[in-house]
């Protein structure tokens, strides 16, 4: 009679902490260059001044968005849509050409994880030293190292949150409020929330964000094909691995591959995968494994490129670099690139031809139309004039589209301050004997600035029964 053996299968298993080894090389240099560039940009922009104001400021309370010389209103929301389209098609293009370049080099999760890991190495040492420290007992030395790391992490997180809020509240004002402990509730919330998110994501969650929370890892395969440059392990050259090898400069045993099975490519991977197992969704394309493998190849005297950027077709068909790059310009890449150029050109043209002011017309809903003295029919409106420049502008308003329209009161030299908005109430009168049927008839307001620039804002004029 068979004996039944019970086995417990856990649906959840906590993963061991990944302790990446420090790596240096060509790709690591590029990665740190982009870390420096993105952080100088992020932390520095709020401190730049443009005239008497902050150069980049999203003033939600006043509904003004300042981008250097541009003053945008909520009505300019279309520009945000265009920027999102450019970002999306740029991501599609880069992914089709060379995989997860964004993830490996410029994604905020990658950037801040690199910064936090650098702090961790500074306090606790490289991979082996950190593993020994974590497994050892709590001592004064361990407490000092861990406390120092946490203090710097918290400082970076809070400074990141402070900078984030500084894009919405003038950063000099925000700094004064922080020093005097007079922050408002929303400013305090977002400073602490963004700081805590940076601290938690970059300090603790790290690869978990890339593997489980980021949707890009799941749908990247839809943008890959066999001519996409990805980080690849040359199986034909590297296998079999782990066999005994001769010293540098001596002949290898027959049938032995180039991979020495040192596992350094696994130890430097921030997501803990083995690239030798092929393309995996966890790979963020940081190329740390390429740098460390090239270093090993140099030491053992073998050619570089056992792990390299290559395409699936390139490895399978032994394509040369020229043949591989010629395949880059395939239909999907050309389509993404063409759409990206068209959208960007449209954005530049729109910003170039953009008026220095805007106007919005709102009908008076309380009184659609009424008859006044001398048989005139009057419609009431409210006109919002928005100055999108940083100089005082004066405007005149006239009505057109129907015969003999009269604007009351006469609107001449309406002054609107720099980057300010002003509401004006006005009426439009239609003389008797107009011959128009009852109902709504199209008309427009012509708003002309003192510099000669003008625009027409469409609306309707209602003739009562």
From TrEMBL:
InterPro entries: 4Fe4S_Fe-S-bd (IPR017896), 4Fe4S_Fe_S_CS (IPR017900), Cyt_c_oxidase_cbb3_FixG (IPR014116), Electron_Trans/Redox (IPR051684), FixG_C (IPR032879), Helical_ferredxn (IPR009051), Ig-like_fold (IPR013783). Coiled coil: none annotated. Signal peptide: none annotated. The keyword Kinase does not apply. The chain crosses the membrane at residues 21-45, 65-92, 151-168, 188-205, 333-353. The keyword Phosphoprotein does not apply. Keywords: 4Fe-4S, Electron transport, Iron, Iron-sulfur, Membrane, Metal-binding, Transmembrane, Transmembrane helix, Transport. It holds the Pfam family FixG_C. Gene3D superfamilies: Alpha-helical ferredoxin (1.10.1060.10), Immunoglobulins (2.60.40.10). Residues 249-278 form the 4Fe-4S ferredoxin-type domain. This is Cytochrome c oxidase accessory protein CcoG. It comes from Roseateles paludis.
């Amino acid at each position: 009679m068979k004996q039944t053996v019970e086995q417990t299968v856990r649906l959840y298993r906590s993963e061991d902490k990944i302790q990446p080894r420090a790596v240096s090389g060509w790709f690591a240099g590029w990665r740190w260059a982009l870390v420096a560039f993105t952080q100088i940009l992020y932390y520095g922009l709020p401190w730049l001044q443009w005239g008497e104001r902050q150069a980049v400021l999203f003033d939600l309370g006043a509904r003004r968005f300042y981008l250097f010389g541009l003053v945008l209103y909520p009505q300019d929301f279309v520009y945000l849509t265009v920027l999102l389209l450019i970002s999306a098609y740029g991501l599609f293009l880069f992914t089709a050409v060379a995989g997860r370049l964004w993830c490996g080099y410029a994604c905020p999760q990658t950037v801040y994880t690199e910064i936090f890991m650098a702090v961790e190495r500074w306090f606790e040492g490289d991979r082996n030293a950190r593993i020994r420290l974590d497994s050892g007992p709590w001592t004064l030395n361990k407490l000092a190292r861990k406390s120092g790391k946490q203090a710097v992490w918290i400082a970076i997180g809070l400074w990141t949150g402070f900078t984030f809020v500084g894009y919405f509240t003038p950063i000099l004002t925000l700094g004064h409020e922080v020093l005097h402990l007079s922050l408002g509730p929303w400013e305090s919330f977002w400073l602490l929330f963004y700081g805590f998110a940076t601290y938690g994501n970059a300090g603790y969650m790290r690869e978990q964000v890339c593997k489980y929370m980021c949707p890009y890892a799941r749908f990247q395969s839809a943008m890959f094909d066999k001519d996409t440059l990805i980080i690849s392990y040359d199986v034909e050259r590297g296998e079999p691995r782990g066999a005994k090898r001769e010293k540098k400069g001596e002949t290898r045993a027959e049938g032995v591959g180039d991979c020495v099975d040192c596992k350094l490519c696994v130890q430097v991977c921030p997501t803990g995968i083995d690239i030798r197992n092929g393309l995996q969704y966890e790979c963020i394309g940081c190329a740390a494994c390429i740098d460390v493998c090239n270093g090993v190849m140099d030491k053992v005297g073998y050619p570089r490129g056992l792990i390299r950027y290559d395409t699936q077709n390139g490895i399978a068909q032994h394509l040369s670099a020229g043949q591989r790059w010629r395949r880059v310009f395939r239909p999907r890449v050309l389509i993404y690139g063409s759409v990206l150029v068209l959208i960007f050109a449209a954005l530049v043209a729109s910003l170039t031809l953009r008026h220095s002011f805007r106007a919005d017309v709102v009908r008076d809903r309380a009184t659609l139309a009424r008859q006044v003295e001398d048989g005139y029919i009057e419609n009431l409106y409210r006109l919002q004039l928005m100055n999108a420049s940083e100089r005082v502008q004066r405007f005149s308003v006239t009505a057109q589209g129907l015969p003999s329209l009269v604007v009351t009161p006469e609107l001449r030299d309406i002054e609107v301050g720099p980057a300010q908005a002003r509401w004006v109430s006005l009426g439009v009168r239609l003389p008797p004997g107009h011959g128009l049927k009852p109902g709504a008839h199209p008309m427009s307001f012509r708003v002309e600035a003192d510099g000669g620039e003008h625009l027409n804002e469409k609306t309707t004029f209602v003739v009562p029964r």
